[in-house]
């Protein structure tokens, strides 16, 4: 599975609507509003690079209010939360 993070700049008046429309796109697993240089960050999970190439320019960039995107492909995932979850299986009280 390929994971990509899409940094998205939106028109201020369309931020909420654009975020929901992006979240509804098949292949987009999460959308976060954030502070900083971008307005939204979307996470995409796809089985092949071609699918990401369809999702970003073919769907995200066509959402009304999206001004610009910058896509980053992930190579590996490192997470303290994943490790903690693995070792705590069955320890819930």
UniProtKB/TrEMBL annotation:
Domain of life: Bacteria
SUPFAM superfamilies, per database record: Dimeric alpha+beta barrel (SSF54909)
InterPro entries: Dimeric_a/b-barrel, Tscrpt_reg_AsnC/Lrp_C
Transcription regulator AsnC/Lrp ligand binding domain span: 6-76
Name listed for the protein in its UniProt record: AsnC family transcriptional regulator
Taxonomy of the source species: Bacteria, Bacillati, Actinomycetota, Actinomycetes, Actinopolysporales
């Amino acid at each position: 599975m390929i994971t990509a993070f899409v940094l998205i700049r939106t028109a201020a008046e369309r931020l909420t609507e654009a975020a929901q429309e992006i979240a509804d796109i098949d292949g987009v697993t999460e959308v976060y509003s954030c502070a900083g240089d971008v307005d939204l960050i979307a996470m995409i999970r796809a089985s092949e690079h071609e699918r990401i190439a369809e999702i970003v320019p073919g769907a995200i960039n066509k959402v009304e209010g999206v001004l610009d995107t910058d896509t980053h492909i992930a190579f590996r995932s490192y997470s303290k939360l994943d490790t903690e979850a693995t070792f705590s299986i069955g320890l819930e009280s």
